[in-house]
Sequence to fold (178 residues):
Amino acid sequence: MTRLSTARLELIPATGALVRAELEDLETLFRLLGVERASDWPPADTVDALPIFAEQLERNAALVGWLSWYWVLCGERPVLVGNGGFKGPPGPEGAVEIGYFVRSRFRLQGYATEAATRLVAWAFEHPRVSHVVAETMVENVASILVLQRLGFSRGGVGSEHGLIRFELAREDLRPNVP
Fold:
């Protein structure tokens, strides 16, 4: 699987080996990603999904890219700034759901917008994807702003109390979104 690049980031798709290292040996994960050690990794919100992702990726390499991506800030000393990706490949209706996380010290610097823009573009490179959806907490203003910058529209209530849904159809994709 090819890595994706943005102006400042390299997006590395999660593989079974990378997620297994994230579960069992963080030093190996950081070495494989070529980044400095991060004491606040992995994000608490993703820990429960890691065993599921590892098992899925080890069983089916075709899922690489349709789950998580590691976001590495390029430079003299590469650093892991966050992660994000999809909950799986497109379903029968052509939807994929995106989510993302930025480490606290890297928030409010545009990394989520930059990475999510590239991931949405990557998803729409696949003909089976007709729209991308996202859910976020009502009070998560930063995430809402990211989605609005990318051209997502409110799509109603989320799947759980306190979540709101956003959607972006292929025909509404804005070229060269920041």
